[in-house]
Design goal:
The protein has about 400 residues and is an alpha/beta fold. The protein is about 40% helix and about 15% strand. It contains 14 helices and 13 strands. Strands 2-8-7-6-5-3-4 form a seven-stranded mixed sheet, sandwiched between helices. The chain has a four-stranded antiparallel sheet with strand order 9-10-13-12. A two-stranded parallel ribbon has the order 1-11. The longest helix is centred in the C-terminal third of the chain and has 22 residues. The two termini are about 35 Å apart.
């Protein structure tokens, strides 16, 4: 059988065996509703409470600051809409960045239609937001700053603590979309001056369809779903009991092994990046060379299309993702890559390889063995490459 290599861990992870084992009884034997007062319900409530404790501990938060949600996108929506609507008497201005996930960008655009004003800050060539730009953008109408912790495409880690300090000094709430960061980098919401933080279990070996929102005590935020009294009257609906149990176990495991996991991932990532740059010409690394997620490698290959690169890798058993958004039905390249200054042509030739716990040095070797030949073949078919070499290209 042909070798299969998964290097798309930023898209999703598998559910770890220990996580599955802890979840399983809550599908079958321990199926009570956490809101019920009988022993089945109390058993379920205890499991939800434990998951809340584990999540709070991982972030250095209190248990009553953790709210379980349906995932990262819901947490982002709730943080931004909830804070905006609860504080509109104070002002109507929101600050975010041009490289946020669409769960943040589209939520901000929705609020603009409702009369809110949004400033979209630029980033530098590495995808970093300048804290001074944040400070300058604050007005007496600013109620919320939302800057992601680490970028999902290029892996750049933002100066979150500094942005949080600026927000705190100006009496403005600070939300961070930490979906890519939680479980992969140390996070301390108190030390980093974070008021609201979004996370999603399936990015750190937990189940899909469950996430959490950290809301600092005292933050004014509207409820997200109306109905029952679940999540302290802020998010109605019967809890996803097995999912919440899985999130709690996964986040605990992630932070128990963080240093060991990160050093292994960073070493493989660096070897992968160095090998690609050495073996292939006309390649650029996207994102910050040092301030980046330990498992993220995002590279642009000139003169070729990211889609063709992805499909060719897939035929060799390698799962990766592209910097181009063609798969979503859009012909525009990634907004993140354009924001860091790439041209449309170069942005279209981008590849994101994200490593995880099951990757090995042999996986890296296999990619380094296969990728140069694929790039060469695609470039030989490319009119842009022929033009670059000064050759005539005949269709």
């Amino acid at each position: 059988m042909e070798r299969r290599v998964y290097m798309d861990y930023a898209a999703t992870t598998y559910v770890k065996q220990e996580v599955m084992e802890e979840m399983m009884p809550y599908f079958t034997e321990k199926y009570g509703n956490p809101s019920s007062v009988h022993s089945f319900g109390r058993e379920a409530r205890k499991a939800v409470d434990l998951a809340r404790e584990r999540t709070a501990k991982a972030l250095n938060a209190s248990t009553d600051e953790i709210y379980f949600t349906g995932g990262g996108s819901e947490s982002d929506n709730w943080a931004i809409k909830g804070a905006a609507l609860a504080n509109k008497q104070k002002g109507n201005h929101i600050i975010t960045s041009s490289i946020e996930h669409h769960a943040v960008l589209y939520t901000c655009q929705y609020l603009e239609k409702m009369g809110f004003e949004v400033t979209y800050l630029p980033v530098d060539q590495y995808g970093l937001v300048n804290p001074e730009d944040v400070k300058k953008a604050i007005t007496d109408k600013t109620i919320l700053i939302s800057i992601m912790f680490a970028n999902n495409e290029i892996g750049t880690i933002q100066p979150v603590k500094e942005i949080g300090r600026i927000a705190r000094e100006h009496g403005v709430y600070f939300h961070t979309d930490a979906v890519q960061a939680v479980g992969h980098v140390p996070i301390d919401v108190k030390d980093m001056n974070i008021d609201l933080l979004s996370l999603s279990a399936h990015k750190f070996y937990g189940p899909k369809g469950v996430g959490a929102l950290y809301v600092r005590k005292g933050v004014r935020i509207h409820p997200y779903l109306h109905g029952g009294a679940q999540e302290r009257n802020r998010r109605a609906g019967t809890e996803n009991l097995p999912g919440i149990v899985g999130l709690g176990k996964a986040i605990e495991l992630a932070y128990e092994n963080l240093e060991e996991s990160n050093s292994k991932l960073a070493a493989m990532r660096d070897r992968l990046i160095a090998g690609i740059m050495e073996k292939i010409d006309h390649v650029r690394l996207n994102g910050h060379p040092v301030k980046r997620l330990p498992g993220n490698a995002n590279l642009s290959f000139e003169f070729i299309e990211g889609e063709a690169l992805l499909l060719s890798l897939d035929m060799k058993g390698i799962a990766a993702s592209s910097g181009s958004a063609c798969t979503s039905g859009s012909l525009d390249p990634s907004h993140v890559l354009l924001a860091i200054g790439l041209t449309h042509e170069i942005a279209h030739g981008s590849l994101r390889l994200t490593l995880g716990d099951d990757n090995t040095d042999e996986d890296v070797d296999y990619v380094l063995e296969v990728l140069p030949g694929i790039v060469e073949r695609l470039r030989n078919m490319s009119p842009l490459f022929a033009q670059h070499k000064g050759e005539k290209y005949y269709v």
